[in-house]
Specification:
Blueprint (H helix, E strand, L loop, with lengths): L8 H12 L4 E4 L9 E4 L26 E5 L3 H12 L4 E5 L2 H9 L6 E5 L7 H9 L9 E5 L13 E6 L4 H12 L19 H4 L4 E4 L3 H13 L4 E4 L2 H10 L4 E5 L7 H11 L7 E6 L6 H7 L4 E4 L4 H9 L18 H10 L4 H28 L2 H18 L2 H15 L6 H21 L3
Parallel strand pairs: 3-4, 3-5, 5-6, 6-7, 8-9, 8-10, 10-11, 11-12
Antiparallel strand pairs: 1-2
Helix pairs in contact: 2-13, 3-4, 8-9, 11-12, 13-14, 13-16, 14-15, 15-16
Length: 451
């Protein structure tokens, strides 16, 4: 019933992949129209361990329960997030902002099963701390995970025995994968307690959206509606591109989840017609849904006028991120200023930390207090021409802001950090007023997002 068929590219790729893995692929067909063909392939592979499953991240985890984790980061906000993430898995977290204090704990024999160490810290950087720790305990006695907000992996000597290197802002899935691989690389994982939902069920209250789901597959419809309901949304349904256009004609929508392949009119053509008939301000934001994961699919969707892209099977985190970029068009509805706080990053942080309103409020309060303190430190360091103090304060402001989605402020703070790294503070004084203004806006926006 589809108007557009495939090209056979998927079969060619599958055949090549099978051959690269030492197998073969062939087809058996009688060549009679209406009578199906049978495709076969052989594959050389090692037997998988029995009952291997993908661990669930929510709730206490059997392989992490009771493990003692040392968190070393001079940034209080980063430590707060790490403590929250690891404790909900049943780990025993101990933290410090001082590398020297952490080294004292290790030297006197305090028990730790793993350490997460920030790379960039005053008084002693993470690599130096790791080298000193290695003189006390080897990699098997105390595995070390390094984290950095510099945007690149730092070269580490093999003698340090670094288990993993993670880039900030740390995401729950990255951290969990690193810890799970360390403590249970090949065993089945079960939760100790029923997993508490990490979904933000109140998202629809904060961001009210009218959503149209354009999807012809009944199973996919039910799945998408279920995912939407878990974050507080409902949606109207269109079975193909023609029905989607008719629905947009009848009433305004804020977002359309548009399947790419549908009968009568596919999602690409429907998107072209919607973009041609309504201006960007009038039309809904179009989010493509496709089961294909081929290079160029995203570009093809964007070329048709679509605004975003999620791949099937749909993951709720990707859906949250895509919907966070939408804006309600109904008068009288308000939402936090997305020009100050990136809603996708903030929503991911909420999900990663368990969606607890009390913790979220505490985190925002900590950020708002720290940001003022860091600004004061930069002003003082600038007056004293103290490059190191200025650089460290700018670095912390950058890292904190990136964690909570204040991306513009994070970029401005990064500029100040880079100025200090050149060995001079020339140009910093002219930039500080804008950083101050952006900080005020970010603090105000986050205060409104407290629950």
């Amino acid at each position: 019933a589809r108007k557009y068929g495939g090209t056979g590219l998927g079969l060619a790729i599958s055949k090549r992949l099978v051959e690269m893995m030492g197998g073969t692929m062939w087809v058996e067909s009688e060549g009679i129209p209406g009578k199906g063909s049978t495709f076969h392939f052989t594959l050389c592979a090692q037997p998988a361990p029995e009952f291997v499953t993908r661990p669930r991240v929510a709730g206490e985890q059997l392989q992490l329960h009771g493990k003692r984790i040392l968190i070393v980061d001079d940034n209080a906000t980063n430590r707060l997030i790490l403590i929250r993430q690891t404790r909900q898995w049943g780990m025993l977290a101990r933290d410090t902002g001082s590398p020297r204090e952490a080294l004292e704990w290790v030297t006197r024999g305090d028990p730790f099963d793993v350490a997460i160490v920030d790379v960039t810290m005053p008084e002693m950087d993470g690599l130096t701390l790791a080298a000193k720790v290695r003189k006390q305990r080897d990699a098997r006695a105390l595995p070390i995970i390094l984290s950095s907000s510099l945007g690149k992996r730092e070269p580490t000597p093999d003698t340090l025995g670094i288990t993993a290197f993670l880039l900030k802002p740390l995401r729950q899935s990255q951290l969990y994968d690193a810890l799970a691989a360390l403590f249970a690389p090949s065993i089945a994982v079960e939760t100790i307690a029923p997993a508490a939902s990490t979904l933000d069920a109140a998202m629809a209250q904060r961001l009210p959206l009218r959503i149209l789901l354009a999807e012809d597959n009944a199973v996919n419809q039910k799945l998408a509606l279920r995912l939407l309901s878990q974050i507080g949304y409902r949606a109207d349904i269109a079975g193909n591109g023609v029905e989607a256009i008719q629905a947009v004609e009848r009433q305004p929508y804020d977002a359309v989840l548009m399947d790419v392949q549908m009968p009568e009119m596919d999602g690409l053509e429907a998107s072209r017609q919607i973009c041609a008939r309504w201006s960007r301000d009038e039309r809904p934001r179009i989010i493509a849904m496709t089961a294909n994961a081929m290079q160029g699919d995203r570009e093809m969707c964007l070329a048709a006028g679509m605004d975003d892209y999620v791949s099937k099977p749909i993951r709720v985190r990707e859906l949250v991120e895509a919907l966070s970029k939408c804006a309600p068009k109904q008068k009288g509805e308000t939402m936090p200023d997305t020009g100050v706080i990136d809603q996708a990053i903030f929503a991911a942080l909420v999900a990663d930390t368990g969606g607890d309103p009390a913790f979220l409020n505490e985190l925002i309060d900590t950020y708002r207090a720290d940001s003022l303190s860091l600004l004061e430190q930069m002003h003082t360091a600038l007056a004293a021409n103290n490059l190191d103090e200025f650089r460290r304060a700018a670095h912390s402001l950058k890292s904190n802001s990136a964690n909570l989605g204040a991306t513009t402020l994070a970029d401005l703070a990064k500029e100040l950090e880079m100025i200090a790294r050149t060995g001079t503070l020339d140009g910093a004084e002219e930039r500080l007023p804008r950083v101050q203004a952006e900080t005020d806006q970010a603090r105000a926006a986050l205060e409104k997002m407290k629950k």
